[in-house]
Amino acid sequence: MASEDDTQESVVRVDNLRVAFGGARSAAVGGVDVCLAPGRALTIVGESGAGKSQLALAIARLSPPEATVTGRVWWGATDLLALPPQALRAWRGARIGMVFQDPSVALAPHLSIGRQLSEVLEAHAPKMTRAEVMEQALACLRDVQLSEPARRLAQYPHELSGGMLQRVMIAMALIGKPQLLILDEPTSALDASARQEIVSLLDRLRARGISLLCITHDVGVAAHLGDDLAVMLGGQLVETGPTAAILSDPKHPYTRALLASRITLQTPRVGVIPTLREAAPVQGGGCVFASRCDWASSVCQTPVPPHSLGQVQVRCHQPWLGKS
Length: 324
Description:
Layout: H1 4-9, E1 12-21, E2 29-36, E3 41-45, H2 52-59, E4 67-75, E5 78-79, H3 85-88, E6 96-99, H4 103-106, H5 113-124, H6 130-143, H7 149-153, H8 162-174, E7 180-184, H9 192-207, E8 211-216, H10 219-225, E9 228-233, E10 236-242, H11 243-248, H12 253-260, E11 307-309, E12 312-314
Parallel strand pairs: 3-8, 3-9, 6-7, 7-8
Antiparallel strand pairs: 1-2, 1-4, 4-5, 9-10, 10-12, 11-12
Helix pairs in contact: 5-6, 6-8, 8-9
């Protein structure tokens, strides 16, 4: 069980979290340990199918019914996974806010923005009057710096741009004044200008003491937001530590390959774009990157626990290989 020291040092601590689906060859999340510190941003990066979204949903107790979730998610001395559904309602919104991927799908198309914000408020503060609810909804839109907030209350999702919808989603998550905000791909499908605006907004939230757990495939977002970075593959965190340390000197071969596959302004316009070759993850407890790694050997077929290299935890038998 979490101690009083854990309560003071972390907002949420995840112990051996596992998410599995019946019939799947391997777990979507395979025994993850992670800690979210107060007022800090933890960004989780990795390719599609790595398990990032399933990890976020499990922490918030929003996994689909067909998922089997085991492990512990400690909020202080309380295990969120052990709470009955009725008790969990007091935690969601009031302590944990969730921003789902693709707000154009997450928001109800037939309800106005004001109505959707007010429904969240009414669920957590049923004694508020209608006037108080709408004033609070307006204040939330102002808080996320959405233009013309009074006008937006009467509009519907299809009338707003992608960047505006993302601000609405963040406003909905902030209504209950949570200590932790979980964001699943908050900048996906946004243009460069809108992406920068959302990242700047998240920076301001972190400065207010709100902890952020950000799921993204965009290493640039991770570099900007990062206090801490976790690289995920095959349901495992293969490298974790301070963002600057990992991006400047990645230890795991997958992290190095992931960073090398980015397209930047310096990427040559001719030749082959660097990519990560596809292959099935290793089964039976070996390194999940072994079948795609140029430096894999027989030892990589055996279980590899995370171990420390300076400030970083890395899950690799031979992290020094393949470095230039």
